[in-house]
Every structure is written in structure tokens, then in C-alpha cells.
Task: inverse folding
């Protein structure tokens, strides 16, 4: 059963990818990106990674789509026509894909008890987090407590991204408009 | 979209449950999937939905852009503040066991609750600031 679910999801992912590559209207491409993220979220659910699936669905399919549409509203939704000769691009894509497939073949199976990911600190998290942290969701224990320092860094990254946006296009307060208008009137004089 | 009655009514019905769901994801993240990141994004999405339907001006009267900008920093400060608090109580930075000297597990609960709230505040505020930035840019350059 799981094989069919996986095969179905992966086929849909491949179909969506081909549609994204062939699509020339950027608004439709943005919608397909959202669909791709939602399918990825379903794949993560099949892999029992519900927290990641949750993030992928809300960030990938939700917010990213809105932000890309907002960007299209500013930049325009037209893509320049692509030149016919795409042989170098095809070679790069095929070689990269072959290397990736070769790399995936060296990865351990999902849930392999001898894999490095399940032999190092994994045991401590699974066996001790219930008594040490007392939180049923181990993902939350790891993210918020064992790896709290990393999560602080992630929040700082998000904060910095917000600061960058404020510096680049303003915080929507209209201050940039006033400043620009002020400069314009100064130039007139 | 202010003149589309169907969109307006649907948004008015949907936004309160979305906000409630964000709070559920925020405070139930210890027990099920979810946490500050997801909750912040969902909360931000509800505000952005309001902005898309009712306009930037109405949204900014709910959450002024200055407040959203300040809240981006408040979340990080709340998170780092828990770390400083645990240092002042004699533990390591972000060692929640120090927050409750009698019951370390309770200290962990308190610490995780507050830092997840910090994450949620920063993520939601950054999402809203992003929307304000884009929408304000469009308003100023049309």
C-alpha cells in the first residue's frame, strides 16, 4: 500500500516539475510551486515526519506562494523567451541528476537501525527525553531544548531577513514614499 | 477584492478559526506536531488574508507597521532572555533545568513554552512585515 502511495506522489511530483519547466506564465508557475510543496508535505507525512510536513505545507505552499505573487505584482509576470539551443543546460542537468542518484544509492534505508542517524544521539533522545524534558513530542524536545541554541540562531536568521526587507523596501509605513517625495520637491527647487 | 461579497464573507468566517488554530498549534506543539514556526506562519497568513481582502489600510489599523517591526525583535529578545534568565539562576545558557530548582522537568516546560512563544512572535511579525513591505511598495510606486 505504501509503495502505491509513494509511487503516486512521486509521479505527481515529476508531472508538476515538468509542468513548471514548460510553463511560461509565471503566475501559473507560482501556483504549481505551491502544488509541488503540498505534494512534498504529503511525502513527508508518508515518511512520518509530520512536523516537517506541517512546515512545508504552511511555509512552502502558503506563505511562499503569497510572497512570490507579491513579487510578481512588483516585477511583472512575464518571462523572457528562452533561446532554442539548450544543449549545455541539458548536459548540466543530466550530469547533476546522475550524481544525485549515485549519492542517494549510498544512503541508508529509511528507519535502518544501523544508520549513523539512529546510532549517535538518537537513542538518548528517544529513551530519555520523556523523563528529562517531559514533553511527548520528541521533535519539540530536540528543537526547543537539546538544540535550543540552534533554534535561537534560526530565529535570529528570520529576524535578520525581516530587517533586510525593511531596509530594502520599507516596512509599509509610507516613510520611503515621503522621503522620495521630499527629495523630488528638493530637486524641483 | 474589497468589492467581492463572497470573498469578504468567506474571509470573515475563516479568519477567526485560522487565528485560533495558530494559537492551538503554538501551545499544543509540545504534545502534537507543530510549534512556534508553524504557528507564526499560520498567524501571519491569517493577517495577510485579511490584508488581501480588506486592504492594507484596514490591516495596518489592526496591527500598525511600527508595532509589527518592533515585535520581530521582541520574539528574539524573549528567546535570548530565557537564556540569560537561566544563566542568572545558576545554569548554562538556555539550560531550562535551572528555571525551577525543585522540579527540573517543570523548568523545561516553562522554558520551552516561552521560547516557542518567542519563535512564534518573531515569525508572525516577520511574515506581517514582509507583507507590509511588499504591499506598501506597490502602493507607493503605482
Result:
Amino acid at each position: 500500500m505504501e509503495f502505491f502511495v509513494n509511487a503516486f506522489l512521486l509521479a505527481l511530483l515529476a508531472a508538476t516539475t515538468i509542468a513548471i519547466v514548460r510553463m511560461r506564465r509565471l503566475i501559473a508557475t507560482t501556483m504549481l510551486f505551491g502544488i509541488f510543496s503540498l505534494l512534498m508535505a504529503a511525502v513527508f507525512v508518508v515518511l512520518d515526519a509530520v512536523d516537517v510536513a506541517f512546515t512545508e505545507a504552511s511555509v512552502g505552499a502558503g506563505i511562499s506562494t503569497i510572497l512570490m505573487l507579491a513579487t510578481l505584482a512588483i516585477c511583472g509576470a512575464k518571462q523572457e523567451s528562452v533561446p532554442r539551443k539548450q544543449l549545455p543546460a541539458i548536459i548540466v542537468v543530466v550530469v547533476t541528476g546522475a550524481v544525485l542518484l549515485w549519492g542517494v544509492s549510498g544512503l541508508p534505508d529509511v528507519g535502518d537501525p544501523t544508520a549513523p542517524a539512529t546510532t549517535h544521539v538518537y537513542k538518548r533522545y528517544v529513551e530519555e527525553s520523556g523523563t528529562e524534558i517531559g514533553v511527548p513530542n520528541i521533535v519539540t524536545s530536540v528543537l526547543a531544548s537539546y538544540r535550543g541554541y540552534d533554534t535561537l540562531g534560526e530565529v535570529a536568521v528570520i529576524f535578520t531577513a525581516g530587517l533586510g526587507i525593511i531596509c530594502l523596501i520599507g516596512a509599509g509605513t509610507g516613510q520611503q514614499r515621503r522621503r522620495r517625495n521630499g527629495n523630488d520637491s528638493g530637486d524641483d527647487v | 477584492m474589497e468589492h467581492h461579497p463572497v470573498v469578504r464573507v468567506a474571509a470573515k468566517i475563516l479568519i477567526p478559526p485560522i487565528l485560533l488554530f495558530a494559537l492551538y498549534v503554538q501551545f499544543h506543539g509540545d504534545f502534537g506536531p507543530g510549534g512556534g514556526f508553524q504557528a507564526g506562519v499560520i498567524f501571519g497568513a491569517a493577517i495577510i488574508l485579511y490584508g488581501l481582502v480588506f486592504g492594507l489600510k484596514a490591516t495596518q489599523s489592526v496591527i500598525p507597521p511600527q508595532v509589527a517591526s518592533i515585535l520581530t525583535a521582541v520574539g528574539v529578545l524573549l528567546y535570548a532572555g530565557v537564556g540569560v534568565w537561566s544563566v542568572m539562576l545558576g545554569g548554562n545558557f538556555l539550560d531550562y533545568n535551572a528555571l525551577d530548582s525543585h522540579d527540573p522537568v517543570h523548568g523545561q516546560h516553562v522554558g520551552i513554552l516561552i521560547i516557542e512563544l518567542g519563535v512564534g512572535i518573531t515569525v508572525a511579525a516577520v511574515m506581517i512585515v514582509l507583507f507590509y513591505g511588499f504591499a506598501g511598495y506597490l502602493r507607493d510606486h503605482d
